[in-house]
Amino acid sequence: MSSVQLGDISPIEKSIYLNQDILFLAQFFLGKFLISQVENKVCITKIVETEAYKAPHDKGSHAFDNKRTKRTEIMFHEGGVSYVYLCYGIHNMLNIVTSVQDEAHAILIRAVEPLTGIDFMKSRRKIKPIKQLANGPGKLCQALGITREHNGNPYYSAKSLIWIGDNKTISDTEIIKSPRVGIAYAEECAHWPWRFRIKDNPFTSPPAQVVYKFK
DNA sequence: GCGACGATTCGCT
DNA sequence: GCGAATCGTCGCG
Question: What is the pTM of this model?
Answer without folding.
Answer: 0.96
